[in-house]
Amino acid sequence: MSTANQKITEEIRAQAERLLSSGEVEAFLGYEKGSLPMSVRPFTARKPEDAGRLVWNSFCVLNLANYLPALLKSLEPPRRPGDPPPEGPLPRVAVVATGCWSRNIVVQIRENQVDRDRVTIVGVPSRGMVSAMKVRAAVNGREITAVTEEDHLLLVEGNGFRQEINRWDVVRDNCKTCRHPDPVIHDILIGKKAGQRQVQEPFAQVKDIESKDSARRWQWFAEAFESCIRCYACRNACPLCYCPTCFVDDSRPQWVGKSTDRTDTLLFHLLRAYHCAGRCTDCGSCESACPVGIPMRLLTKKLNMDVLEMYGSEAGMSLDEPLPLTTYDPSDPQGFVLTEREEKGGTR
Amino acid sequence: MKVLKFDRKGMGKWLARLGEKGNVYVPASSKEGKTAIGWRKLESAEMPPVSPGVPARPVKNFLLPQPEVLFRFSTRPGKEDSFIPREPEPGQVDNIIFGVRPCDARSIMLNAMPYENDPYYQARMEHNIIIGLTCGEPCSTCFCSWTGGSPMGTDGCDLSVTELEGAFMARAITRRGEKLLEEAAGIAVEADHDAVEGLEKMSATAVAGAGSGTAPERALRERDLMELYNAPFWQDLAERCINCGACTFLCPTCYCFDIQDETLHGKGRRIRYQDSCMFPLFTLHASGHNPRGQKVQRVRNRFMHKLKYFPDRFGPLSCVGCGRCVRDCPVNIDIREVMGKLLAL
Amino acid sequence: MSYISKTKNPYRPYPARLDQIKVETEDGNLKTFRIVLEDEREREAWNHNAGQFAMLSLAGKGEIPIGIASSPTEKGHLLFTVNRAGVVTTALHNMREGDRIGVRGPLGNGFPVDTDLKGKNIVIIAGGFAFTTLRATLIYMLENRDNYGKITVIYGARTPGMLLYRDELRAWQARDDVEMHVTIDREAPGWDGLVGFVPTIAGEVAPSPENAAALICGPPIMIKFTMPPLEKVGWTDEQVYLSLENRMKCGIGICGHCSVGPVYVCNDGPVFTRSQVRKLPVEY
């Protein structure tokens, strides 16, 4: 058992128990143990005695910020459209947040989905979460019956085999290229801050695809998204996707076809990625939720790269920084604006 | 019962020979250990390696393709055939699907119950020949025995293949299966008495999943519907559900669909494609009213349909215990726990 | 797949023509479409029960389940009164007489006019544009008048201009073998009939439950408030027939959209007794 995780688990439990029994929060959003190896379950503790169920390990891959707006809403007294807002302070919740999740909470606060005053952010610096798919690949797809996590090793067991895997080798790609493992806002901090990580080439994967010629790029695109089953796990695991009616569900007009025809699938993924531009924190929730292993995160990563290059901005880093795509500045890059001459094939 | 014995090489040869009868598909559970698919077309005369358990995608995609074209029509007004729907043109070759696990094969029969009068499904049944592959090594997420199946089951198969001491024993289950075995002349030999007996013994004793032998469908049929519906645990379950459709699209027995028209340049088609009761749009009225507008209602509906509504109507559970939803749910919702809770109510 | 039989394909709509389009209500949102099947044999073979519905099929737009407003006794054409609400109904409202349309059906069970309702006193209660299949039922009963006892109709709409089938309402009011109570929600100039919500009028009429059945169609809120006054005078759930409406796609009990618990509204319904409905989850 990883001593680091053990310590964090204990502290999360202690904080949850304290916050719930003092009445400071009505609910504490964390994780509990799952029924399979490498699985945890998002869990909302509502009573102090629930605190003992909370856990922390390297498989907490689903972004908890995803649940925050709905959870806050569920705790408000019911009211009909047109009713005045309730008087007095509303029930509060606590949420465990790593670096990227805290940045998502910042985005949610900026986009008026979450009220900062109603949230106690329990920050946990992230050591990087593990990709279950990478672990499965590391044991050649054999069935895994147990995984024990040490601080730097995973001990994987299955029918007739035991294998030790270096933890970092199977950490998710987004975590490996993450520069901000520490929560950017928090009310409580568990564990020690890691500080900004130096990453040599955070956008190496994107640049690799960009360097291909258009035919190869298209081929990559087609193959990567081929197995999409249109289950929308990526969308639903994403804390940015909170629209009451998503564009894929809209029927008047219907923007996207519903079958797994390539055109429909690609349109869905591209549009979804664009909706996340300037807002995505590369938390990897989408990719981890995907049951068929589609690397849709690379689309948002590409947009993160563009936003960083063009506007010098990374999503959710602070509560005051201007939002890159809703703020206009005359000095904004506008390379996408074509003059008439350029459009006719001339050079810029 | 005629049983033929193949060695691995012979199996590959036979499958290749079947390629003359139709499109032969074999399991392709992973590509570079990453992108998960279901089946791929057989490319060489080699028996593919088959890992334990089920492929990522269910066999239903052959029977309920995404999409199924119901009709084609012209949308140019004023012509004699304008807007007259026409059934799709003929020309489909049979699919011969190898390596279908007993759970998946059984799903074809279960889905055929509601689809009894559906000509498209019936036609797909006729044109998809199923070569089952029994399970010697059930996975920890497998629970077919609990749902009324067996790792050695042959329901829904035309042929059933069992790996036994390095050899492959093929049993014909239907007349179609027998015909496929005729293609094995010169490749396979007739199995001896001992091998057949061994096969029978395996069939009698094979089990996958806890709680087998308890006939949960009978117990749940006898329970009051509203009592199960009003069980307190649905709310907890729904709380962590992110309401995606991974479970429904991966489930071999989720069979709901939507119908839609698509048009382009004067031509149109009416298609149907798999839909999910987990999506709010599934039940939304044009008036804006939504009978299952809350997440908890949708989560409950999916499980109640499998474990209560379907058994009440057709007898068996609408679940074959393949474990895909257990394995791939992003928030670890485990139908085995739901079943246990319902049975314990 | 040519082996999909043209005659036995339940998804195949019959080609038909929009024969006549009539605007029913003052807001223009309700139109009655008279539809004639193009094939003479199909036209003659068509046979439905009062209370059944059909899929109106607009190639390129989709299908929409609509209750059949014409009585089985009206031969040669079908009537559908359609509210403009979604994609398909809007497209339908934009169509013109002579245009081609598809009709798939008849679907569902309908009211048991030839079995359970035979010999009974009948109370028809309708609100707004839910009167359509009850129009079919009423005409059927009037055509087979001897099969039923007393027939009472309580029908209400927001304003006089929102009442459906106004000419026919007048004709029925002139008959002595049907008791008509037509009401509007609020006083309106030129209206000398009843004023008040349907539940209130139902309470005032207080129909006797003796050897009787009530057929109720209307918005859920109307049905909810109509039940107490009926119960007060002794009506039981077994005597009350409701027609449910849910989103539907296949219309033949497979696709799952209209399911309410183990029941498919399209195939097992849309008509249920209230006692049947009460055993189901409230998902309609």
SSE topology sketch:
The complex is a heterotrimer of chains A (348), B (345) and C (284).
Chain A: H1 3-21, E1 27-33, E2 40-45, E3 54-55, H2 68-74, E4 93-97, H3 99-110, E5 119-123, H4 132-138, E6 144-149, E7 153-158, E8 161-166, H5 173-176, E9 188-189, H6 204-210, H7 214-224, H8 233-236, H9 262-275, H10 285-289, H11 297-311, H12 340-343
Parallel strand pairs in A: 1-4, 4-5, 5-9
Antiparallel strand pairs in A: 1-2, 1-3, 6-7, 7-8
Helix pairs in contact in A: 9-11
Chain B: E1 3-6, H1 8-18, E2 23-27, E3 39-41, H2 60-63, E4 68-74, E5 95-100, H3 102-112, H4 119-127, E6 128-133, E7 159-164, E8 167-172, H5 175-182, E9 189-190, H6 193-205, H7 216-222, H8 225-229, H9 233-240, H10 246-250, E10 257-264, E11 267-274, H11 295-314, H12 324-328, H13 335-344
Parallel strand pairs in B: 2-5, 5-6, 6-7
Antiparallel strand pairs in B: 1-8, 1-9, 2-3, 4-11, 7-8, 10-11
Helix pairs in contact in B: 7-11, 9-11
Chain C: E1 14-23, E2 30-37, H1 40-45, E3 53-58, E4 62-67, E5 78-83, H2 87-93, E6 100-107, E7 121-127, H3 132-143, E8 151-157, H4 166-173, E9 179-184, E10 194-195, H5 198-205, E11 212-217, H6 220-232, E12 240-243, E13 259-260, E14 263-264, H7 265-268, E15 271-273, H8 274-278
Parallel strand pairs in C: 7-8, 7-11, 8-9, 9-10, 11-12
Antiparallel strand pairs in C: 1-2, 1-6, 2-5, 3-4, 3-6, 12-15, 13-14
